[in-house]
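SEVERITY: medium
COMPONENT: batch folding queue
REPORTER: lab tech (J.R.)

DESCRIPTION
The queue accepted two submissions in a row. Attaching both inputs and their returned structure tokens so the on-call engineer can compare them side by side.

ATTACHMENT 1
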Amino acid sequence: MPPSRRLLALTGAAGLALTLTVAVVAPAAAADVEAGRRKAEPCVACHGRDGNATVPGTPSLAGQPAFFTHWQLIKYRDGRRKDPQMSPAAENLSDADMADLAAYYETQQARQRPSKTDPAKVAAGKQLANLHHCTSCHKPGLVGQQQVPRLVGQDFDYLLRLLRSFKAKTASDLDGMMTMSAQPLQEEDILNLVHFIASLRTE
């Protein structure tokens, strides 16, 4: 993409992100963590009692930025993101429900997901993460911020599926940055990045 078009795309994405930030942050500011804990009971079977999932391929929610979780729930409720389990679970959630759930999961301590990583792939993935400036959005340690998800401690299979989906443009993020960033990646790059991310230790 020419630099001028890339700049326009990023400017437009930033404007959209700002608009949605205002929409999501307002209810989140009044979120009730204890209410979120109670409302999370139906989520335990897949995401774990404290948001640390143990089911392979299922994402952990513990420690995710509240903005990110809230936004994902909005997408499931509105049909912009579809999943056989999550779509029906989210369709009747109110804005307050989503804010409470997101606030609850943000306060939970993320634990490491088990995975077997290859040292050579970890090293190659680290180089790729530096090359593509992953920490610029995901922050040092890949702990996430605002609408950008926490990656450290996340499930290996889930990360692999999601990165492949961004590459295939079947997954989307708030500002389109991940879709754009995934396009130059080859399958080997995606695998190496996931090995690197899965090797990182939670705090």
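ATTACHMENT 2
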Amino acid sequence: MGRRKSASDSLAMRVWILLIILNLILIPAQVAAGEPNEPMKLEISFPAETGGWKWDGKIRNFNPRTLFDYMDGAAELYLAYRFQSLDVYQLEKSGQPPLTVEIFTMGSSADAYGIFSFERQDKDAGIGQGSEFGGGMLRFWKGQYFVSIYGEGEGPELESVIIRLGKEVAQAIPKSGPAPKLITYLPDTQVGLIQKSIRYLRNHVLLNQRYYIANQNILHLNPQAEAVLAQYLRGTHKVHLLLIQYPTEKQAEDALQSFKKAYMPEATEKGFLQTEDRKWTMAKRQKEFILAVFGAPALADADELLKATEAKLKGKGI
């Protein structure tokens, strides 16, 4: 991982989170990348009964200003992915624990993918456009919706009905949406990609939660600059690749110089550095993209991964 956080870093990070929340609430969702926004009205025909569990007929709704009332301490993550609204459903069956279904409407399908990818760690459940099931919770995304379903208990019957309910809700979502195009620029599993390690990010606070780089936003991430972080296997080592796309080449170059000055001031003109843990960091720009490798066990590993990314971009006509 990167450099250690100090107490002042933690305080500053909390301030940054508050600023980001205000920014995301005040800035229209349309300014960020992704397909155009659709109406925020939830148009899903929710199943009245599944496997003996019956919906109580009530819907609790939350917006960006009231989300903290429902999930104080976790709302920041959803707001960072341009959260629009949340509908919560409850299903009950006599003698069984209740089921809770949370349907989040995000700013775009890219945001729905992003919130799903940020915490993905379990096996694919084959539901929606991407899913996982573990610890009694099903999570999936489809279109601009992110859905979680869980019960207050465990057991084969409960797990079976959660999967069944998830399939019904996914089927009720009228249409799919594109995942972020940026993830298609990553070198694939033949180069060692760990598929479920892919994280789609929109700001540096979230980036730091998955790979700490710096308290300050030295890579100039913002709602118009998308980023994707992924792990690659190099022997027994896991290496991080960060790929960021900026609106212009100039913004990418400015961000690269800011990163080099703050993170790797001792780096050579070639843009690589061996850190105190004897791992290698390498960064460069290709048009409006920044490519960076962290934690490579050898310089050749970092160089190989960057070249594979460059080749993938060129193969896409970039």
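NOTES FROM REPORTER
The chain has eight helices and 14 strands.
No errors were logged for either attachment.
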